[in-house]
Fold these 2 entries.
Entry 1:
Amino acid sequence: MQSSTLKDVTQNKPKLLSRYTSTRQRTASICRPLSKEDYVVQPVEDVSPPKWHLGHTTWFFEQFVLIEHVADYQPFDEQYSFVFNSYYENAGKRVVRAHRGNLSRPTVEKVYEYRKHVDEAMEVFLSVDQPQAIWDLIEIGCNHEEQHQELLITDIKYILGNNPLLPKYGPFDQSTAIDTDMRFIPVDAGIYSIGYAGEGFHFDNEKAVHKVYLQAYEIADRLVTNGEYMEFMEAGGYQDFNLWHSEGWEFVKQLNIKAPLYWYNIDGTWHQYTLAGLQPVQRNEILKHVSYYEAFAFAQWKGMRLPTEFEWEAAQAQFEWGQRWEWTESAYLPYPNYSKVPGALGEYNGKFMVNQKVLRGASVATSPNHSRPTYRNFFHPPLRWQFTGIRLAQWT
Amino acid sequence: MQSSTLKDVTQNKPKLLSRYTSTRQRTASICRPLSKEDYVVQPVEDVSPPKWHLGHTTWFFEQFVLIEHVADYQPFDEQYSFVFNSYYENAGKRVVRAHRGNLSRPTVEKVYEYRKHVDEAMEVFLSVDQPQAIWDLIEIGCNHEEQHQELLITDIKYILGNNPLLPKYGPFDQSTAIDTDMRFIPVDAGIYSIGYAGEGFHFDNEKAVHKVYLQAYEIADRLVTNGEYMEFMEAGGYQDFNLWHSEGWEFVKQLNIKAPLYWYNIDGTWHQYTLAGLQPVQRNEILKHVSYYEAFAFAQWKGMRLPTEFEWEAAQAQFEWGQRWEWTESAYLPYPNYSKVPGALGEYNGKFMVNQKVLRGASVATSPNHSRPTYRNFFHPPLRWQFTGIRLAQWT
Amino acid sequence: MQSSTLKDVTQNKPKLLSRYTSTRQRTASICRPLSKEDYVVQPVEDVSPPKWHLGHTTWFFEQFVLIEHVADYQPFDEQYSFVFNSYYENAGKRVVRAHRGNLSRPTVEKVYEYRKHVDEAMEVFLSVDQPQAIWDLIEIGCNHEEQHQELLITDIKYILGNNPLLPKYGPFDQSTAIDTDMRFIPVDAGIYSIGYAGEGFHFDNEKAVHKVYLQAYEIADRLVTNGEYMEFMEAGGYQDFNLWHSEGWEFVKQLNIKAPLYWYNIDGTWHQYTLAGLQPVQRNEILKHVSYYEAFAFAQWKGMRLPTEFEWEAAQAQFEWGQRWEWTESAYLPYPNYSKVPGALGEYNGKFMVNQKVLRGASVATSPNHSRPTYRNFFHPPLRWQFTGIRLAQWT
Amino acid sequence: MQSSTLKDVTQNKPKLLSRYTSTRQRTASICRPLSKEDYVVQPVEDVSPPKWHLGHTTWFFEQFVLIEHVADYQPFDEQYSFVFNSYYENAGKRVVRAHRGNLSRPTVEKVYEYRKHVDEAMEVFLSVDQPQAIWDLIEIGCNHEEQHQELLITDIKYILGNNPLLPKYGPFDQSTAIDTDMRFIPVDAGIYSIGYAGEGFHFDNEKAVHKVYLQAYEIADRLVTNGEYMEFMEAGGYQDFNLWHSEGWEFVKQLNIKAPLYWYNIDGTWHQYTLAGLQPVQRNEILKHVSYYEAFAFAQWKGMRLPTEFEWEAAQAQFEWGQRWEWTESAYLPYPNYSKVPGALGEYNGKFMVNQKVLRGASVATSPNHSRPTYRNFFHPPLRWQFTGIRLAQWT
């Protein structure tokens, strides 16, 4: 990831310190409803223990700010780098991702002490003048932590939603109902400008701004609902291989998939686990937790398709978004003139640019103000534990 | 498992109630040094989370005593059977063993409440007269829980000993030094009686008493030490395939095994993780945490062999035992006229009688008075997380 | 795949019959140097036994032409559909791909009889007037068989090149030397037309013709040589994770990859297996048998990149191509207004449009006249058994 | 394996030369009905390509006789040792077992040339006087080849019986009908002598002769029939976990096993593939192709058990045997005073003495005169491709 050079020189010290503090507090507040045991487990490799997220986001500031820029900083524990590094090869060895859930230590209490230790050092450090590069780094760290805030919510949902007791987290994750017909917004063919053009924070993968030629197309003004998706299910969508990619069909057959993630059929009625507990599926609420494979198959069944990320970006002022990460047809690839920053932070985005799909928008779990129209999220096609949804498109 | 009929009619109500209570208390006391997080994790499939042991031993009494024999008993939570059943097919569906570490709920606190709930009901139940079959069942339950007490210790050691921080549990697991030469006790050829012949508690796999003809042999009067095993290592024992079973050699190569479990070579010096922390290996202490494959290869290298379980039992009065579970050459098979009890408890032993090796004796982690000369423990050949050791034998 | 409607009405019956016959004969001639045993084996899942290719291309004509369009046609063997179907879900059940190498029957001789049976029926069928749709189908079948001709060559190379005896196939696979410096052709920014616009045969994935806006770029006038790639190897390219995608780095580490496929280091000198036998690697010959991951890492190391498929197509008139399939940076995705044909033939391309990379050009193994500037080949990023190579690009 | 010292000094040169020649010829004659393609494939790891058996048995004589004892012997091909070594670690590196089916070369023709080359050298070598140790080695080699003759038959059956075309091999594998009730032979308790006591050829695992005390038991006078086994199937034997070992139950569930190997239910009628083709199952023929797990479960269902190998050996004069390898309850372990020969031949038996079950008797596929009452065959519990059957036993 990279912020390139932040041009917004009006952003000043007190504002960033406050941003740092509030970001850190919000992370802790997401974890507040958890019992200690919930912090520890890792039911599948893609889901990390909440304790690990707390430690990892802290390690990010300790490793890239304090250790590198504060002369007499004393690391909280020399071994934490091994425990809390995620994937930065440049930053040394680390616990294999699949084994994060095997670690009972450091304890939750210790991890909070670690956060406190780093926060106090950060606050001292940020209370004095620092060069622009440092402010850029803080901004990156806060955005990084916001990304982990979203992962905390989705990982907590997975941890609780796969427990046979289906425990509640709290009043989150309710969907608002949709009561309008789906309409299609026509967009003219032509050259469009794509990518981040402002002066605020953004990731390196949103640059450089460049021109893209789009054919004329139409894009839906709202997301697909549970009811619309249930029609696909009822029509045998999960049984008709003609609707699926070859890999998608393997996915469905091998994992015996018959519905979105967290859907349970109880005595003939579909329910879904939400963070507020198990509830009957409401037909007029927005669909969530589908894979790219399912999104593609649904669109095929409708005789339509998913939009590309460029079509999405070109049209996004004309519809509401922010409830679901929306699968696009685009593969995650570098933009023209993309360049990654040197060193460890250069590992943030570029090295993942193969075999993943771009998602656009933001979800109910995304941190406030974290997303923007040029934001490029990305996941592997089979993943479903994010709050993902479907927006349809078609050729004119 | 089965106690067959307990003949010891002198064993009376107050004694068994007190046995129940003290057994249950000892289980909790083993867990006292743990942090809550330590209760939850499962680093490998063979190791269960301590929380699960606490729940499972409680479920055993709830399922087989209270639910079956107390008319108005209210189960603590209907779903706990699904969570805490281990492998009793007769007792319904259950969480797959490999997924025990994915469960953050029920919380540790809830599990202790569950124990309290069951203990209170048990104490009421045991305070009145019960038929002999009930007393037998209590005795089985206490023995079952003692087995899990040992597993708690070995599983805790695995959980902490595979954590990169190598945290201490407490002053356990110290080995006493050996300062005598190994001597071999000669045993004459002849017919020996094998199996449990008393009237106290025992498992079904110790019966029926039967005759076995043994050729003349010699058996070591003490266990192998670290120093003796290090000679094997230094002589290239882990590199010489001629010493190993074909499967043992695969085990060594695939897992890159070069020393007993918990041994770490730090700057050229062998250390071992103990529950009291990391310590240099002492050459004159008793070896522990080797697999059957290693025990066999070591014996081959010495030009000797492991004793059979019958040789061990026939000679056991003539040497000290109790520090380590001792690998024998015997496969775990039913004795003549073996019969398992009907119903769920019949699944205790018999269904495991294939592809396992018998271990005799007891270890420092075994519950007091839990073992006896006819006790038959059993594990798969590659397993090392129990406190296992080596006793040598040879033909006369 | 799909030919859409072939507009070239000048193409007449005798010409297509002759095309059919010569295509079929060329397939058999590729197999002529093989021993019977070479026809049978399948060392890895991606490689099919030559016998299977012979049967599958025949089954294609039998299934989609003879059975559907010749009223009294007698299938050679009812069970061959099960054996020789590749992946057409619409055409019924089939032998799992990974098990093709387990089949000793039908014998090679029987498969050649099968070819003869179908060829004779086809020649009768094609000797009379047929509607245009039939001619289209024949054209598809011939193109399909040409694709399998290339796979035959690459699969035979894999079968022989992974045999410890490294047997020779024949005088194929020699590379011509390159003795010019690499020069970069500048291409202006602007809108370019992409996709097949002619009236001859083409696949559905080359349509629809559409506009693409390209930024200014430069593209190399020749492919990378062995010598240039050896500089990357000698500079530690396979050891520097910063050059690799995260998945590429896993690929290199897990498979312990240190050189292109078929390279063997013998006493310090790099050799490569070719169909003409083992030979020392010549530095000035064109590199072959690299994965996308390696192509990407090499370009990173050069401070350059791979071209997109659109850049390649827009510039292809200005450089020579045809020696190697050239990895592009483009993911394999549908073009605007892409539509697949109904029925089984619709499974040809569309269902593979996820997680694959586009390769452009053609290789020394490609059938004559089979490729064209708009041709889109595609493989998964780690695959190396095709004659793949690297063309560099960079931003202006 | 080992013949220990052959005491039978009457066995002379001409007889052994003729034994060598006839053994070698019988191997080739077993392969005569095969097509070349049948020689090459390896559908599962336990089954080796017939070509490999032909080469391996030849390599055995080349490696252990000719190379070691004939001064000027020229190996046929230096690389064949790598290709045809089975598992002798002492004899150098080798093709991994699972990859034997990937090798199209050496061709079948070459392998027969190899046999001819070695046979000619052997005949020269054996036409002159040789020390007793050489004769012993020849005897071992012939017995080794006889074991592979049986494997050839069972592997050919697997190769053809898993081919969707179910091709015939020839008039083999017919079962004779049984028309007698099963009767049980009582055997008295007492000490019995076990192990090979003669002076002819035998393997090291049959020694030393030793005493075993047996409790009184009864053993069936004939093997179990298809009809008796079908009663078990019809009674739900494959669905009742109480009849199975824990590992056996996993085996049944994971592989979805519902009948013996090679049984196919066609329109409600059970058929079995035999080397003479697919045939309806005859109820009064002897059951074949069951695993140890199935044999155990069947015996449990009958309220009986399998005999131990000692019980089998002590009683074998009183019943007919030789149609099936009979699963026993005994684990494959060394006899008292077992010692393996030094060097590569010492790898023949001892290193497999863990996690396997002993089978006694012989099968219709066993080479004539190859077996004897003390012969100990051994396989892993789930294996079914040998001609295995069930003999019941029970306590008196």
Entry 2:
Amino acid sequence: MPALPLSDSRPSPAIADLFRRVRQDSVSLGKPLSDADATVQSMPDASPAKWHLAHTTWFFETMVLAPNVSDYRPFDQSFNYLFNSYYETVGERHPRPKRGMITRPDLATIFAYREHVDAAVEALLEQGAGEEISTLVELGCHHEQQHQELLLTDILHLFAQNPLRPAYKDPQPLAVGASEADPVQYKSFEGGIVEIGHDGQGFAFDSEGPRHRTLIEPFRLADRLVTNGEWMEFMADGGYRDPLLWLSAGWATILTEGWDRPFYWEERDGEHFTMTLRGAQPVDPAAPVTHVSYFEADAFATWAGRRLPSEAEWEHVAASCPMAGNFADSGHLRPRPAQNAAGAGEIRQMFGDVWEWTRSPFAPYPRFKPVEGAVGEYNGKFMCGQFVLRGGSCATPGGHIRPTYRNFFPPDARWQFSGLRLAEDA
Amino acid sequence: MPALPLSDSRPSPAIADLFRRVRQDSVSLGKPLSDADATVQSMPDASPAKWHLAHTTWFFETMVLAPNVSDYRPFDQSFNYLFNSYYETVGERHPRPKRGMITRPDLATIFAYREHVDAAVEALLEQGAGEEISTLVELGCHHEQQHQELLLTDILHLFAQNPLRPAYKDPQPLAVGASEADPVQYKSFEGGIVEIGHDGQGFAFDSEGPRHRTLIEPFRLADRLVTNGEWMEFMADGGYRDPLLWLSAGWATILTEGWDRPFYWEERDGEHFTMTLRGAQPVDPAAPVTHVSYFEADAFATWAGRRLPSEAEWEHVAASCPMAGNFADSGHLRPRPAQNAAGAGEIRQMFGDVWEWTRSPFAPYPRFKPVEGAVGEYNGKFMCGQFVLRGGSCATPGGHIRPTYRNFFPPDARWQFSGLRLAEDA
Amino acid sequence: MPALPLSDSRPSPAIADLFRRVRQDSVSLGKPLSDADATVQSMPDASPAKWHLAHTTWFFETMVLAPNVSDYRPFDQSFNYLFNSYYETVGERHPRPKRGMITRPDLATIFAYREHVDAAVEALLEQGAGEEISTLVELGCHHEQQHQELLLTDILHLFAQNPLRPAYKDPQPLAVGASEADPVQYKSFEGGIVEIGHDGQGFAFDSEGPRHRTLIEPFRLADRLVTNGEWMEFMADGGYRDPLLWLSAGWATILTEGWDRPFYWEERDGEHFTMTLRGAQPVDPAAPVTHVSYFEADAFATWAGRRLPSEAEWEHVAASCPMAGNFADSGHLRPRPAQNAAGAGEIRQMFGDVWEWTRSPFAPYPRFKPVEGAVGEYNGKFMCGQFVLRGGSCATPGGHIRPTYRNFFPPDARWQFSGLRLAEDA
Amino acid sequence: MPALPLSDSRPSPAIADLFRRVRQDSVSLGKPLSDADATVQSMPDASPAKWHLAHTTWFFETMVLAPNVSDYRPFDQSFNYLFNSYYETVGERHPRPKRGMITRPDLATIFAYREHVDAAVEALLEQGAGEEISTLVELGCHHEQQHQELLLTDILHLFAQNPLRPAYKDPQPLAVGASEADPVQYKSFEGGIVEIGHDGQGFAFDSEGPRHRTLIEPFRLADRLVTNGEWMEFMADGGYRDPLLWLSAGWATILTEGWDRPFYWEERDGEHFTMTLRGAQPVDPAAPVTHVSYFEADAFATWAGRRLPSEAEWEHVAASCPMAGNFADSGHLRPRPAQNAAGAGEIRQMFGDVWEWTRSPFAPYPRFKPVEGAVGEYNGKFMCGQFVLRGGSCATPGGHIRPTYRNFFPPDARWQFSGLRLAEDA
């Protein structure tokens, strides 16, 4: 799900650097995968890794090269049909639930496709592309970063379907720190008219703006994320069996799907394990809970006598939190216990641990207008039935996190690195 | 879907009057129905008329009589199972999609059940019931008024399934006035901090409060509803065939369901007819369009280059609109063309014509807290995946309309009297 | 499911008698029903009683009156659309799963429709109708008898959905005889070439012929039906939990549907009850088990180390069993314990107790040819995915039972009065 | 779907030869596939090639090695769970619809698994294994041959989902002979008591026996298969649009699935193409039609005024037809026009062209009894809802075809090489 930029201020050389780095990151992500790993689609909501690697390339070919390089020779004419995602304006496309049928072209061919397109884009940028092209390339890079995270969450989902629980990365567990998280503290914030939304400095997707005033009431926000240990208490207290804790649609989902724990948890001889990108690993009680749906996050908050923050509250707080150092490595791939983060007392784990469900339905900001044309077929069309998540996860590329970023998923989605932080009225 | 009152100020005699009137209104609504009409369930979202008549009675029996009348003898013990709706706290209940299987008790027995309960409630009120009981009876009356409207929309849906298109009421068409609506005018409103939500004077459901401040931007609002004639233009312009006008989920629904016109419209020899409570009738181009979903309302607004109002905008305007005289008759059962309403130039058709879709997802107001106990199992649990509608329809009982009222339905619901009014940023 | 006659030998007065009796029987069956009872459709496989009463009448109107009475005035033009069942050649029809939406016309109107058509048919017969008309009327009568049984099984299914378990007939239980059935005995039959199928003497449906030779091997047949008591042993022995007893499709059904007992059984305080046309009643261990599917009958036979008989074996034995006296009353509505039937040692309970599943898929006899025209749209089109049942049940009209009769249902059907008798190779 | 042998007469060396040849054939079939090709499952009814290659190996490991080689070391303990198919008696197994999730182990590992097991089986056979082991190995070879054909049909299905229509084999079309088939001739056969079923000489599956007498009536059988050209006539004559030609369940399938041509046909610029193992190729009018369901075969026969043969009729004729030379090459992979077969006038194309639908439901022969134990979980459990096909197809391994062979599929299955031959009553 790409989105229109709100601004374009980067000079062309910086864009070329960005392009090279982002494109290389995707290749690195694809390297541990076999041809089969990269081909299979584990559910309609997920896409094959090969598709992510090709679709992001298709974006540059279709949006940047085709209109701007007169003698550009497409790598393969059939790829426009195969790797278009949902752009109704760009013609027919392969049906989403059948993306996993495309065993050919194989992964090596997709890497060759990437090189073909990369060379053409780099040549174009070297010629000193104008502002319009730079903007599109920058958009394409951020679009690709979105797919980098999806590639990881989709591979995790695929590997979780395999009874062998294969590891995407080095299967050795990270050293687990303290087995218990610091006690949570609630920090107070005053109400009033605040400004949220992107201000146009640097890249942002269309739905992050316009920056605008909004009114918030005094509230308190937890200084850290809800942990696995706390989630076990919720489970032990019958949290998944008490309909009064749940939204009506959430309870119906519980009954239909038989949910009784976070998505990737399984019990082995009385101990909780969870599927991770490093294979099945024991659940760390001090680490943030993840792979929970909005329904579960909301029920947990009700059980705890609190609520989820609104996205305005979250962003208001986040604007004053330092991001630096939090996620130097774009691939740590596991949320870290809070005690490893900045010192207690401050608001911690805001960026790069887990996507935090907010209580805010994904809706347009005041005066939001989708842009015209193919690149405008974006976030606006998803503003129905989804909730906003904030903060970025351990699978989010480092340069892709910012306080105004609005991620969104339906309330039953669980395969993302999604967790929660509690709030309450002051 | 009943909901907790925000206040209780009415004296007991007034409550007794309200009770008698509301209970009698339901009986009147049931009278044109045969036993079979009142028994069949036409879809899982609808309920049989008999069920509406019994469930509202069950509410008084369970919430008012059982706890407060020591020697109360239930009319029939099995009715608690049969006519509970969704109150998880009040025990097991008959599955919703099987409500139409209950051919016995018959309609006459349900009327007898109503008389049995009415007599007991009236006796209780005559004794001078205290505030708590008055509050519950008032809540029960408003709850019943909600079901009165649902009874009508559900019967309309049932009769629309019958190829004979039977009429619930006198099948003669109402006289149609001018065949064209007045040109629409957009009236400007200033932005700023406004107050919305119920202030506790008189009855309201829990989700209508608390009254609170909110910030709105300057905007313009259409002075009348979108008409059938305008909808025909949308259809003729390919509105149902252009994916760029639609939310992603809306377009998926179009493809799955084959929608290409409002819910009850059908074409006969090139002319549009619509199913109504008076049978199939020609579509009146000057009357407000109705039985359209949120998806359709949103697509229409996009096509028209405008947007739906937020519920705050709507309520801010509605607070200064006169309601009097608009719906003296609680059963006119057909939205009226705008030229029959108050003079052009003012904002018209705000109350009692059609439920107006807003762009606002149904979400809790700041500091909203559901009440404890069985009567608290209400609106809060539906705050997910639904959009707010405002204003009340031609099927809404007269005393049940107020500016703060928040109705809500999923974005694909079409069987209510739902239409729209356009807005735009100023 | 009507079917073409193989012969027509009855003189017209006899046909008129048959017509009057059959038509009156249907009215009697409809009398205990309320308008609502007669309107609701409890599942797609069942039809409303009103529909059965109207459809059988539509058959006479469309097949007999319309082509043969020049000045015949249809009772209501819309009924051709409403009450056609599946005859593709007779035009559009109301979709089967929506038969329960037709609350109007009401039951009284359907009775009036019946009288209108009866008068016209009787007048036609009095004029001395020729052979073709007599044949069609006779066919219509047998068609109607099929629907009489379906009316009863469908009402039973509807009433079983009602938690109140209403009784169609006098709810007092029949006196239960001995609590144990006689021990079953297996009677030997020689193999060889035998003749089966209808020989053209008297009425039969098309699929009952042609009479033809077939080769059977020596076998033994149980002298009575499997009882409820034996079924309880099967259940107690884990019959519903051992996949090795089941056909693959049967086991899949078990897992999907959660079957663990006959269709209408429920446990109350440790005792088995079953829903009947006289309401919920204790299960009689000596009575034949009924409302079991082919899957269950086959699994039971495997568990018992035996098999179901083929239809040729069954018919070969049945041809020499007396039918007289077995079912003088066409509506006893409950299968009787075997000890009440003819003396032990003989083959008992062949006619009018329960439909007996055979191991034979419903397939055409050698040289079978469907007849041309609308009345030919019959049994032939169902010769796929169904198994043959023989013998007739306690709900089958008396004159509708004969040794050559081939009933058929899919292997998961349970709402008919279907049971079984065991066989084994000699 | 393996099945119990009826006999075991082969000496051990012959079995060892058979084993080596069959095992090598599977490897050859797998060679053209990429890791991804071999991993993806294109529909629940199909299995990945990797699964076929592993499951057939699992059979030898579990049924032959584990019970008979005391120090046998399984290649990988987890494979018992992954590659069990449906044997309830051998423990838990991976759910069938999730077979395509197993990206690891990869294809190379599966080939290594095969070598590991092959070495152990060959060592066992060299020791001079007794009759029981020889029997099991022979059974395993025939089981594997069944999966060889399925591997091809499943790969064809997978490649047909890919818009690029990749070729499994050399994409050059075979030379097409005459564009028109010889006129069909019907050859007469006398009725009477005949013997069918396997007589115990050589290998056969359990359901092929016991050999038994059956009675057939005089009939005529077409001397060749129905051709693509004849199928085009059926289509042009509205065959897919006339409900009177179809079984009721078949017509429902037509409406739901939108069938209007054989499974793999598509139109390009007015010409019919069909997907084959050599990629998309023009339809050859003289070649036998294939990839049609029983529903379509039956409707075609009705349209042609004829019928499908019974399996007894087919086998009776087949017993006197020469098989030699018909399919020396086990992988020609495309049915050949009849004029290329033995001279006109005789019954042609009986073996190795397409599987021929018969009108016979798959049912047990007289005195059929499934064998005890895990290998007995076979054909018997599928004797419900399926129809018998005879003759073998162009994808059937040469040594796997015999006159008594009973293949079976549900009436809507189309992805096998299934066609038809007509018959009529004499």
